[in-house]
Amino acid sequence: MSTAAPASALPSYDDAIARYEPVIGLETHVELGTVSKMFCGCATAFGAEPNTQVCPVCLGLPGSLPVVNEAAVRFAVLIGLALHCEIAPWCRFARKNYFYPDMPKNYQISQYDEPLCTNGWLDVEVEGEIHRVGITRVHMEEDTGKSLHVGGATGRIHGATHSLVDYNRAGIPLVEIVTEPDVRSPEVARAYVDELRELIRALGVSDVRMEQGSLRCDANASLRLRPAPGEPDAPFGTRTETKNLNSLRSVERAVRYEITRQAALLDDGERIIQETRHFDEGAGRTSSGRSKEEATDYRYFPEPDLTPLELSAEYVDEQRAALPELPAARRARLIAEHGYTARDLVDMRNAGVLDLVEQTVAAGAASPAAARKWWLNELARRASDTGAAPADLAITPADVARITVLVAGGELTDALARKVIDGVLAGEGTPDEVVAGRGLAVVADDGALTAAVDAAIAGAPDIAEKVRGGKLNAVGPLVGAVMKAMKGQADAATVRGLLLERLGTS
Amino acid sequence: MGRTGPPPTKGPHAIMGITRDEVAHLARLSRMSVTDAELDALAPQLEAILSAVARVAEVAAADIPPTSHAVPLTNVFRPDVARPSLPAADALAGAPAAEDGRFRVPRILDPDE
Ligand SMILES: [Zn+2]
Question: May I ask the CATH class of domain A446-502?
Answer without folding.
Answer: mainly alpha
